[in-house]
Amino acid sequence: MAQKYVTRQEDYSKWYNELVYRADLAEHSDVRGCMVIKPYGYAIWEKMRDILDAKFKETGHSNAYFPLFIPKSYLSKEASHVDGFAKECAVVTHYRLKNAEDGSGVIVDPAAKLEEELIVRPTSETIIWNSYKNWIQSYRDLPILINQWANVVRWEMRTRLFLRTAEFLWQEGHTAHATKEEAIKEAELMLDVYSDFAENYMAMPVLKGRKTESERFAGADDTLCIEAMMQDGKALQAGTSHFLGQNFAKAFEVKFADKEGKLEYVWATSWGVSTRLMGALIMTHSDDEGLVLPPALAPIQVVAVPIHRTDEELAAISEKFDQLSKALKARGISFKYDSDDNKRPGWKFAEYEAKGVPLRLAMGPRDLENGKVEVARRDTKTKEVIDFDGVESYIVTMLDEIQKNLLQKAMDFRASNMKKVDTYQDFKEQIDNGGFFLAHWDGTKETESKIKEETQATIRCMLLDQELETGVCMVTGKPSAQRVVFAKAY
Amino acid sequence: MAQKYVTRQEDYSKWYNELVYRADLAEHSDVRGCMVIKPYGYAIWEKMRDILDAKFKETGHSNAYFPLFIPKSYLSKEASHVDGFAKECAVVTHYRLKNAEDGSGVIVDPAAKLEEELIVRPTSETIIWNSYKNWIQSYRDLPILINQWANVVRWEMRTRLFLRTAEFLWQEGHTAHATKEEAIKEAELMLDVYSDFAENYMAMPVLKGRKTESERFAGADDTLCIEAMMQDGKALQAGTSHFLGQNFAKAFEVKFADKEGKLEYVWATSWGVSTRLMGALIMTHSDDEGLVLPPALAPIQVVAVPIHRTDEELAAISEKFDQLSKALKARGISFKYDSDDNKRPGWKFAEYEAKGVPLRLAMGPRDLENGKVEVARRDTKTKEVIDFDGVESYIVTMLDEIQKNLLQKAMDFRASNMKKVDTYQDFKEQIDNGGFFLAHWDGTKETESKIKEETQATIRCMLLDQELETGVCMVTGKPSAQRVVFAKAY
Predict the structure, then answer these.
(1) Are B87 and A108 inside 8 Å of each other by CB?
(2) Which one of A399, B69, B154, B330 is least enclosed by Cβ atoms within 10 Å?
(3) A141 and A204 housed in the same domain
(4) SS3 assignment, position A306
(5) pTM of the full predicted structure?
């Protein structure tokens, strides 16, 4: 790897972009704002998806699939919803192309104009509640607990791979309930599913909180979120879970008969995470040598590289790793043996480092002779030469240790970059260094937007699990019921 | 289930539509031509997807994801490709809505017109080969073996749930190779994967064949296919695998340096199956009582229903089924115990029959006393009362037998509805009764389209595995190299 890459210190943003290419995760396509998710990146996303999907099913949800297109009039039915999404959507207006009469090529056929334009879904509340209308008559039809894995489109003007793209992949849960309490419980439950996934699989600690009114999802009564801290101290919203009240039920006239036969509007939630999580994963753990992956999400958990001069040596080393391969596969550990003769071991080392493979094994003729193998950890970049006998259980222990170490490291980083501030002066001096700031706020939109304007920092959330501490707003001096979390964010 | 449903005999097409609703598989959405795949239908599709996905990976393929949108100019680069798809596509022309000045609602913002229109992908050859161009320089970069699970849109005018919808879900494999031979081998390999899946999981026998030139995929040099026979004797194309030659490589200028450094165009294949397979599955096995599912694809393989008067009886029966549930789960058999007290056993029986659950167990107080359980097979509609002890291994055997029986039944049906015909007179007299007809054809487009015009029958394929038998065309009397398969088709 002769190429020199920029370090995090030098240019965090450029480091990120280079890393996504270097680890072969994704690339920009020629279609404005749309990315190509390459096989290695997609393999990580598949792991995320499968783990989340199992958790959704464990908590009683089923998958379904709703149309990609939303009639313009549906989007308009919930007033704040359309305000939130109309400004950035892809609009289908025609359904046919034809050959231009002047022979200049293919043009849109003006005769094939749609009566009503279709919007490529930016999110599916409206199209789904339009269906729920027909599915729900009585309390017996509730709850409905449905999730959808899908692509969505939001016409973002400034895009970044995984973090903000015009098209992205996500899941969106949409549930319908007979009572407000049940819907709120559901929104909280799914937030817990997300935070559990973030911490125990992504090794990424998250704050669980509630958005302020101005940061809420368009159409929600309450938006819960998980917020993670990236290595540059910026916040990344990693998932949201919305209590939608009866807003969509009212917009689409969805009522149910309760046990007494009385008609009531249905209560709703929606919740989602997206390929944005890929960006969060990358920026939480990776270093200047490339991607660092937690073993729980690594498509290749262990890679082995032979170091040899002769074919006999290669054959003997291959036999050893072949043996190990079977043993690891039986334990569900993904193992790759890279004996490709066209590439030098040093090149391979750098390659698997860039791709974040948690453990790398290497064996040369002398190791073979002595019954040894070299084991290199990606997270700490430490190496050990150990007995080949017993390497299998060593690997199991080590993968577990790496997973824990990455979480601990991220937790330590966050702890040392999260502080209380009490004056706006202090806040303004420190905010550019990054980090999360717990500060008092008077609860008004005016103060919130003044702070945003002057510092680019936003209120990430009001923490769910914190002792309330009253105080005075750092900007206006008015009373404050609790500290809230400020940060600059992705 | 008081409602009376139409039988296959009375109206096959209506029977199909009613069944899709009755088994709760899918429904029409308000968006023209787009369907909602409901949880039970989606659960079957998920099983199909997971099995196919594992097979693709076993044969060396990786998943990736490419943009939903295709610039109009890309689609135009391969001449026959654009001819095939331009007439039925959704065109995105704008990227923003705004409030109408007269307050009448939300309208398309004329200021947000795209410079170049985007087509919602009807298939992804063009956008993918535009990427491959940058991925391929040398023979070392080949082969590329990629699959994508995605939604696609083709603006069909006459739609039917699963069989023909404007939006559908599918997988599309796109591979790039250094040699023609390797690409042809790949196309054949994937056809075998499809036919193996159809026969061993869907219990649906298929003919493997080659399409005539006029039935080829737009942009292919050769289209291989699997064709299945539905219960009304019509053919359904269940999957296709295309040898694309160098057509897309030439359209997108994709060359590689071979071992001697000489530049050559890359060879390509693409192959796909879609949610259409759901329609094929339904029409192969189902009967007038509803869906019949092969155990390999059934979301619920075994359902158990208690029949009781008292709570004590229910408790005792539940204990038995609880025990069985654990034993079956340990064997990977999906089991549902339906003790919902709001519904009568008879209602449940009809419901699970309509949903095609392969085995239904029932236990009443007397069964409990005698250590018995009633087992009902969905495929044969036979019932047996057997000892509860040992029911677990009985179930395992029975599921296997049902899977085999469904395939055998479908094979017998096909065998008795596939015949050789030698005169056009015979052909015309018999074609309306349905079935596959092996007949001689002179190999010309003219004769092919004359037959289609006069009988609505098409050449489904030229069989891959058949002894060649020369003869004379049933229409023109000109020489024919082999019999081909004619049928009316979905």
Answers:
(1) no
(2) B330
(3) yes
(4) strand
(5) 0.97
